Amino acid sequence: MRDEILKKMLAEASQDKPVTRETIMHTFRVSDRSARKMIEDLREQGVRVCGQNTDKGYWIAKTQEEYERFRRDYVAKATTIFRRARNMDEETDKRQVSMFELL
């Protein structure tokens, strides 16, 4: 029921008039974390929920082009996170001391 109401809100929204997280929090009487989780749950279900920035709001893509524009930014964030994790892993590997070096 809650998912359906949220989907309806997001379907009526647009990039110019998105649904803010504050609106989701107020409508469903949930925390900020729960509001973000609700959005992620819809995305896990395959709903094309777009967002310019977490503080601006969300909407469901109306066109393939709109979705692809959002997807590029969304995937770029993930790529950046994976690159940073790899860099941290490599730095850790350089500083790791083996047991034999300690002897």
Give a brief outline of the structure.
With 103 residues, this protein is mainly alpha-helical. It is 66% helix and 6% strand.
Q: How many domain modules?
A: 1
Provide the CATH top-level class: Mainly Alpha
The portion of residues forming beta strands comes to 5-15%
What separation lies between the terminal Cα atoms?
A: 64 Å
Order of strands across the main sheet = 1-2
Overall pLDDT score: 90
In the CATH hierarchy, the architecture is Orthogonal Bundle
Provide the structure class: mainly alpha
Total E-strand runs: 2
CATH topology: Arc Repressor Mutant, subunit A
Tertiary shape: elongated
Helices and strands, in order, run as HHHEEHH
Sheet having the most strands: 2 strands, antiparallel
Uncertain residue segments: none
What is the helix tally? 5
**Overall helicity:** 55-70%
Radius of gyration: 19 Å
Give a structural overview:
The protein is mainly α. Helices cover 66% and strands 6% of the residues. The protein has a single domain, classed as Arc Repressor Mutant, subunit A (Orthogonal Bundle), CATH 1.10.10.
Set out the fold topology.
Blueprint: H1 2-12, H2 21-28, H3 32-44, E1 49-51, E2 58-60, H4 64-95, H5 99-102
Antiparallel strand pairs: 1-2
Primary descriptors:
103 residues; mainly alpha; two-stranded antiparallel ribbon; single chain; Arc Repressor Mutant, subunit A
